[in-house]
Design a protein that fits this description.
The complex is a heterodimer. By secondary structure, chain A is α/β, with parallel strands linked by helices. Chain A is built from 11 helices and 10 strands. Chain A folds into 2 domains: about 120 residues, Periplasmic binding protein-like II (D-Maltodextrin-Binding Protein, domain 2); about 100 residues, D-Maltodextrin-Binding Protein, domain 2. In chain A, the strands form 2 sheets. Chain A has a 5-stranded mixed β-sheet with strand order 2-1-3-10-4, with helices on both faces. In chain A, strand 1, helix 2 and strand 2 form a beta-alpha-beta unit. In chain A, helix 3 runs parallel beside helix 4. Chain B has one domain: MetI-like (MetI-like fold, Orthogonal Bundle). In chain B, helix 1 crosses helix 8, helix 3 crosses helix 5 and helix 10 runs antiparallel to helix 11. The chains are: A alpha/beta, B mainly alpha.
């Protein structure tokens, strides 16, 4: 008998707990909202910082999914549950706009990325003196770039190499990363001797401690203008809009600048 | 259709299957017949790639053979470059990744052999080695065929390890699965479709051929 009442008590306790969770979870989620941001890999540090501030100010919960702009675009085309998309270029965002997959008029140019050459700390290459031509040194056996077939920074890297008349001679040494994160990682793990990657990733502790970088002159490649859109299927459009507004504030711009992004010129 | 990627993938799969059958035969023999108490440890180790994500394997290949590790420096000293971004790197990764697919079918078919036949061979004076090659191996033809088929197929469709250590170099590390991935990311669905269909057809034909051969191998067994 006693074990039976005990069992009843346990069952009741579990039921109460389950009910509590069932009531509590949607309540908290609904109270402050939750959005998922899909972003190009070069935004890793900057968006984490922005999201931290935004969550602190609004109490909303923001999830971040990082990848290459091309891959994220394909995912959105196939109904991925993202609320916002931060591309590393304008083209992918504009493609979604043409396909009517975004909230009309939500496309904003939020930053301009910069290309850098990243080399291991002990590398003796002197970019300050020789510029990109330093990459022709025979000690550089592998140069990592993001895949130019779909990664904007990869396209910028190819343009910069072509501008320096190095592309033909260096092409056999190129290895392709899926996005700028993997491209950078190839140098961090000691498998490539140089990478053409995003300035914004140079502020992460792991990158900083393992290597040094040189900023490729902006005149060597078309500017990496980056655009963001609110995904048409989003169920949290107002919160997504709030986030876009936040990145346009002084505070938001300051964070982008801290991660090496330039502010895009105003235009219509 | 990227024929270069297909040719590369076929070469990788054939080489991996060939290396694995040589490596797996002694391991499978030992696992099947050893009575060591710590055999379970070897079994667990041999099956590890079944459970381990390809990313873990890729990570180890990158780090263990990168220029910051002693092993990587040794490799670099011999070959002049790191293992990542080379065809050899893909072969090493694939051999680890497909190892259980070679060992397991062999162990199963070794264990299915009537022990009396092995005993008879030994009693009649044949050495262990002769018994292996003249009794055990011929009776395990279907196991060998299955091991080859599975390692080949598993390597043919490999993706994660290659994505992590390959560097996507045309003709060297851009396998067919990576090519499909690239085309999808670039939004070229038509090209991805063609490649995928060819991949599907080739995989099916190869597997069907091997299983057809395998079917003929069964009645050849002497006890049938």
């Amino acid at each position: 008998m006693e074990s039976r009442t005990q069992r009843h008590r346990i069952v009741r306790a579990i039921a109460a707990l389950a009910l509590g969770i069932a009531l509590a979870v949607p309540a908290t989620a609904r109270a402050s909202g939750q959005i998922t941001i899909a972003a190009a890999a070069d935004l890793d540090g900057a968006l984490h910082a922005l999201i931290g501030r935004f969550e602190g100010q609004t109490g909303a919960e923001v999830r971040l999914v990082l990848g290459s702009s091309g891959n994220l675009t394909v995912q959105i085309e196939h109904g991925a549950p993202f609320d916002l998309f931060f591309s590393a270029d304008v083209a992918h965002a504009a493609k979604l706009e043409r396909e009517n997959l975004i909230v009309p008029g939500s496309l904003v140019r939020y930053a301009v990325g910069r290309l850098v050459v990243y080399v291991p700390k002990d590398s003796s290459l002197d970019f300050g003196k020789r510029g990109l031509a330093a990459l022709a040194d025979p000690s550089v056996r592998r140069i990592a770039i993001a895949n130019p077939r779909f990664a904007p920074y990869g396209q910028a890297a190819v343009a910069a190499l072509r501008h320096a008349n190095l592309y033909e001679s260096l092409e056999p040494r190129l290895v392709l990363g899926e996005d700028v994160s993997q491209t950078t990682q190839f140098v961090v793990s000691g498998n490539a001797q140089a990478a053409l990657t995003a300035l914004s990733l140079m502020f992460a502790p792991a990158t900083r401690s393992r290597g040094r970088y040189w900023v490729v002159p902006q005149s060597d490649y078309p500017p990496i203008e980056q655009a963001a859109v609110i995904v048409g299927r989003s169920r949290e459009k107002s919160l997504a809009h709030k986030f876009l507004e936040f990145i346009g504030t002084k505070e938001g711009r300051a964070i982008f600048q801290r991660y090496g992004f330039a502010t895009p010129e105003k235009r219509q | 259709m990227n024929w270069q990627a297909l040719e590369l993938t076929l070469r990788l799969s054939c080489l991996t299957a060939a290396i694995l059958i040589v490596l797996a035969l002694p391991v499978a023999y030992w696992v099947a017949y050893s009575r060591r108490r710590w055999k379970f440890l070897v079994q667990a180790l041999a099956s590890l790639p079944l459970v381990m994500p390809p990313t873990v394997l890729g990570f180890y290949v990158l780090v263990a053979f990168g220029s910051s590790s002693p092993l990587g420096r040794l490799w670099q000293h011999w070959t002049g470059h790191t293992l990542a971004f080379t065809f050899a790197g893909l072969v090493v990764g694939s051999v680890f990744y497909s190892f259980p697919f070679a060992v397991q079918p062999l162990v199963n078919s070794f264990l299915a052999i009537d022990p009396k036949l092995i005993d008879a061979s030994r009693v009649l004076g044949a050495s262990r080695l002769a018994t292996f090659f003249r009794v055990i191996l011929p009776l395990s033809a279907s196991g060998v065929a299955t091991a080859i088929a599975l390692t080949f197929a598993h390597t043919f469709g490999e993706f994660g390890v290659v994505l992590m250590v390959g560097g996507d170099i045309p003709g060297v590390t851009r396998t067919i699965s990576i090519d499909v991935f690239d085309q999808v990311q670039a939004g070229n669905y038509a090209a991805a479709n063609v490649t995928s269909l060819v991949l599907l057809a080739v995989s099916f034909l190869i597997l069907a051929a091997i299983y057809a051969w395998n079917r003929r191998a069964w009645p050849r067994a002497p006890w049938a």
